[in-house]
Amino acid sequence: MELDELRRFYAEEIRAVSNIQNDALAEAFARVRREDYLGQGPWQIATPDSWQGRAHANAQGGYRTTPDADPRHLYHNVLVAIDAERRLNNGQPSALAAWFDALELSKGERVVHVGCGVGYYTAILAETVGSEGSVVGIEYDSELAARAKENLARLSHVEVVCADGGTYDAGPADVVFVNAGATHPRPVWLDALNDGGRLILPLTVTRDGEESGGGFMLKLKRAGATFDARILSPVAIYSCAGARDPEMNTRLRDALMRGNWFAVQSLRRDAHEATAECWLHGEDFCLSTQPSPD
Fold first, then answer.
1. 101 within domain boundaries
2. Count of domains observed in the chain
3. Strand locations in the chain (E)
4. Which side of the chain, N or C, has fewer Cβ within a 10 Å radius?
5. Which pTM value belongs to this model?
């Protein structure tokens, strides 16, 4: 099988596994060359026990090395190490595909990608919205940002910024996708959304000293001054440095332990006292089990 055929087979597998409804998104997985973003092979592929981290007895540390530098090894539904020592990976294609599909991407839209890493999934977003759209990738790690800039330089409708994604204002957007764990939605992300805009972010809890955590993906959709909200799926992911607060980490942990996360229906930004309907209550936001007002 030729490499172009293999990419298309990979894209169809991801479409099936993730139930992708957006044809342009599925086509993006077939067109974007993953090897262009992950450096020279051989590559390190995360093994099923990689989630156990550095403490695991496996001398390989939860990774296996591909036997050679053939790009065919990358066209599977696998995590590929960007920095194995930090356990930093290029994300699971099926998971990213499902979340991107939930973004309801359309040609010509403006997308902000927080935590763009080395740019592979930024390129997927850019291919999906087309050259008539635009994508801003924000990366806090200067080395990763430099790699992303180089990898994406050929795409005139993509800009990469080295900045704190929790505070950097990239301007108005139809879509904001946050690819690093937060304890709460940041005001800059909510303010950026145009009417009808969509935001997806990982709400995660971390333990002291850990750079990654677990929780759930949250989708918000703006309708005027209101935001519909729903939980999409579980997630384990690296943390977003500018979007974590110790107090909110505790509140989120308590909320997750209550086990009623799928009851979340809206996000409120008005000042109010916490009530039984407040699933996660903060100073400038509240995830509520009540639907958005009409």
1. no
2. 1
3. 44-46, 63-65, 80-83, 88-90, 110-114, 134-139, 158-162, 173-178, 193-205, 212-223, 226-238, 266-268, 278-281, 286-288
4. C
5. 0.94
- Give the span between the Cα atoms of 24 and 254, in whole angstroms: 39
- Host domain of residue 17: 1-91
Give 57 or 49, the one with higher predicted confidence: 49
Closest residue by Cα to residue 129 from 37, 16, 10, 27: 27
Exposure string over 80-98, b if 16+ CB within 10 A, otherwise e: bbbebeebbbbbbbbbbbb
CA 107 to chain centre: 20
| Mean pLDDT rounded to a whole number for the chain | 93
Among 135, 132, 32, 131, which residue's Cα sits nearest to residue 90?
Answer: 32
Q: Looking at the predicted structure, is the pLDDT value of residue 276 above 60?
A: yes
Distance separating alpha carbons of residues 206 and 48, to the nearest angstrom:
21
pLDDT of residue 52: 52
Residue 180 in any domain: the answer is no
Whether 50 is covered by a domain: the verdict is yes
Is a pLDDT exceeding 80 seen at residue 278? yes
The whole-number pLDDT of residue 4 equals 93
56 within some domain: yes
Mean pLDDT of 70-90: 94
